[in-house]
Write a structure and sequence with these properties.
Strand order of the largest sheet: 6-5-4-7-8-9-10-11-12
Order of helices and strands: HEHHEEEEEEHHEEEHEE
Shape: elongated
Structural class: alpha/beta
Number of strands: 12
Radius of gyration: 29 Å
Number of helices: 6
Largest sheet: 9 strands, mixed
Distance between the termini: 113 Å
Length: 239
Amino acid sequence: MRINWNYIKIIALLLIVTGLYAFSNHRSEGKKIDEINIEFVGDQNLYITEAMVNKLLIQNYGSLKNVPKEKLVLNKIEKVIETNEMVKNAQVYLTINGELEARIVQRKPIGRIEGDSKFYLDEEGKRMPLSMSHSARVPIITGNITGESLEDVYEILKYINEDQFLRKNVIGIHIEDINKYQLRFRMEQFVVNLGGIDGLEEKFNNFKAFYTKANRDKTLDNYNVVSLEFNNQVVCTKI
């Protein structure tokens, strides 16, 4: 009987490749974590620090260095990091060099509430605690703070945040009552009575047109109240 050496060579090659793969996979699974790298994605104002993340991991897992890779459940580590109220989401993965990488996206505050309790309002309209590490430069919210008024304030803050002029100049929102919101500006002495949140685009467009003209005429200092409460009008009260 004639032996087909080509088949034997192919089978031998497959056995060698399978063996090498199994050996490599076994070594990879048994490899231990050499280093933990934490990266903050996006806004570099750190409301949570690398040291805080490391402490959180140690509290839940002890030291992760020298732990075999096969013992790590990456999605559970992500969930642990996301328990911190400053974290929006986390992605954890292993590199081929045996390093544990954590990429963290922080929550972004867009307003700071100064009432009986103090907290941030984040970009999703949710409450966010103040940070011991960094204080955000965002508009300060004062006055009659309730669940309903904060929903309205969130809509105002979203609009302000998307407009370069308003984002640069508005430093505060005072809640007199529902549908009675007042804006404070960085450089100007007057306050702006916004009224309710209806027709925000029209109100702010009218205000910016007024501001441009008054700034050109050098009359901004003549006013102490600018009202946008009336339909398609800017009504000013002089000092």
